[in-house]
């Protein structure tokens, strides 16, 4: 009788009453562990490794993050402002103050993204030390690499399929989506301007001030323009404490004493299953590089080197 890869617990309890097998549990465990079908297709509840890292920084203009929001159908708004039917928004955010610029993209070619980044940020503000982004083809293009080189900006790429790696930009995107949905009675340009004002002039929980107040020490909403007393060190500590709490919350459901090592065999979560029948986990592959914070890995998988986040791998 063929039972169809039932796993350790089910196999052991199905036969233990009827068969006496020395070291039954450990033997079944080894069989299941070495079964590639079980390893590739079982739903895994256990998560391995400790999440670390933080995007906290306290000096304005030194570290920025960027993302692309969209597509947006301009016909959903009161007026299209002569923009194409489908547009995108380039978001650029100062990670210390959360000051954000939104640039309209008629398309998402590397050339358009680079030109908009120059227009909306690099030509207006101090040149940053680093820029954080995902691995979208616009950001990994030769054109974008050359732009970063020309401005002497270190480009930091998040690991693939890990939106929380650029969590600041992800939260910016949520605010943009909410604001645009609520202002479809305006022209598209007016709606985007409203989203930018909402991001820059309203209270930010971690800062304790709006981004504008953080940078200029007064509020645009105060007719008297009174100077604000801002403790930047305290804000930096709040940012770090929040990052620590966020990581602690994530680590509650993880096996944090497990450490992935070089040459360890691992399975990588399938990022693009085409159907419910597709393999859930790809591999096994071998770890060839580990980032300093041990949250990002280079893995040799099927003769290709890929990047993977700690959240998307598990031991062989």
From TrEMBL:
Domain Integrase catalytic: 56-219
InterPro entries associated with the record: Integrase_cat-core, Integrase_H2C2, Retrovirus_Pol_polyprotein, RNaseH-like_sf, RNaseH_sf
Protein name listed in UniProt: Transposon Tf2-11 polyprotein
MF annotations from Gene Ontology: nucleic acid binding
Domain of life: Eukaryota
PROSITE patterns, sorted: INTEGRASE
GO biological process, one term: DNA integration
Pfam families, alphabetized: Integrase_H2C2, rve
GO cellular component terms attached to this protein's record: nucleus
């Amino acid at each position: 009788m063929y039972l169809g890869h039932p796993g350790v617990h089910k196999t052991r309890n199905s036969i233990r009453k009827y068969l006496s097998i020395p070291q039954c549990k450990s033997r079944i465990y080894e069989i299941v562990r070495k079964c590639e079908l079980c390893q590739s297709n079982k739903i895994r509840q256990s998560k391995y490794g400790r999440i670390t890292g933080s995007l906290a920084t306290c000096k304005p203009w030194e570290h920025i993050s960027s993302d692309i929001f969209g597509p947006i159908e301009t016909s959903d708004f009161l007026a299209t402002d002569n923009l194409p039917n489908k547009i995108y928004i380039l978001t650029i955010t100062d990670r210390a103050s959360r000051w954000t610029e939104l640039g309209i993209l008629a398309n998402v070619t590397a050339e358009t993204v680079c030109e908009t980044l120059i227009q909306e940020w690099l030509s207006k503000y101090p040149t940053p030390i680093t820029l954080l982004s995902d691995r979208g083809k616009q950001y990994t293009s030769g054109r974008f690499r050359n732009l970063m080189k020309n401005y002497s900006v270190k480009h930091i790429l998040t690991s693939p399929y890990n939106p929380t790696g650029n969590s600041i930009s992800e939260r910016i995107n949520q605010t943009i989506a909410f604001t645009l949905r609520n202002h479809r009675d305006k022209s598209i340009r007016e709606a985007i301007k409203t989203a930018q004002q909402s991001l820059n002039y309203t209270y930010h929980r971690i800062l304790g001030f709006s981004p504008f107040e953080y940078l200029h020490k007064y509020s645009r909403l105060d007719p008297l323009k009174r100077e604000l007393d801002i403790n930047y060190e305290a804000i930096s500590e709040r940012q770090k404490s929040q990052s620590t709490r966020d990581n602690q919350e994530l680590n509650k459901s993880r096996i944090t004493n497990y450490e992935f090592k070089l040459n360890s065999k691992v399975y990588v979560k399938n990022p693009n299953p085409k159907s419910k029948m597709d393999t859930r986990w790809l591999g096994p592959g071998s770890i060839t590089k580990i980032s300093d914070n041990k949250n990002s890995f280079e893995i040799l998988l099927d003769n290709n080197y890929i990047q993977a986040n700690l959240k998307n791998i598990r031991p062989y």
